[in-house]
Amino acid sequence: xxxxxxxxxxxxxxxxxxxxxxxxxxxxxxxxxxxxxxxxxxxxxxxxxxxxxxxxxxxxxxxxxxxxxxxxxxxxxxxxxxxxxxxxxxxxxxxxxxxxxxxxxxxxxxxxxxxxxxxxxxxxxxxxxxxxxxxxxxxxxxxxxxxxxxxxxxxxxxxxxxxxxxxxxxxxxxxxxxxxxxxxxxxxxxxxxxxxxxxxxxxxxxxxxxxxxxxxxxxxxxxxxxxxxxxxxxxxxxxxxxxxxxxxxxxxxxxxxx
Length: 258
Description:
0% strand
């Protein structure tokens, strides 16, 4: 919703700026629209356009980098879940409770993060209809692994490996949680909107008032508003329309249930 609202503000600002420039040009005296004035305005606006392009590029690179990093961490997270499940399965019946807890945790993560839940991977709230929150489920798995009493050296090695895998999962879980709350600084967005509006006002000052120019500027405004929409959408890897895919976690759950 925030991304859509900002995009609407950008569109209104840009297209409104063009219309305001066209309307204002008709009320200016002829010397204010001379070639010398146009050259001076183009020079100043060119500098602003260069800075706007730089800011847009930095914002895009930042959110895209964070989005890709989160996607890789989710993939690694799913891989660690599968590996831990394999270790617990190899351990034998003594680790069945830990395996069931791991499966329940994976299901809860899918529900809260990709199936309409609002809490995301750092969800801590309780759900009376579903029982323990995801954080509690994962902690319970850790306690069950630590309570294992291996009777042979082989089982001791499996318990140690399971603990290592559990610790890696716990660390990666909080890493993904931290990455999921990355936001674009509002100051960047506000300054960018002002700069882009100024550029479009200058376009309107020296553009002819006809259908072609209005359509072109309309499409340009939509395009830039769409660019801001994509940037803001990618800044929240688990929110909105553009999300990190759940394929890796779905595959991990299917492997556990086999």
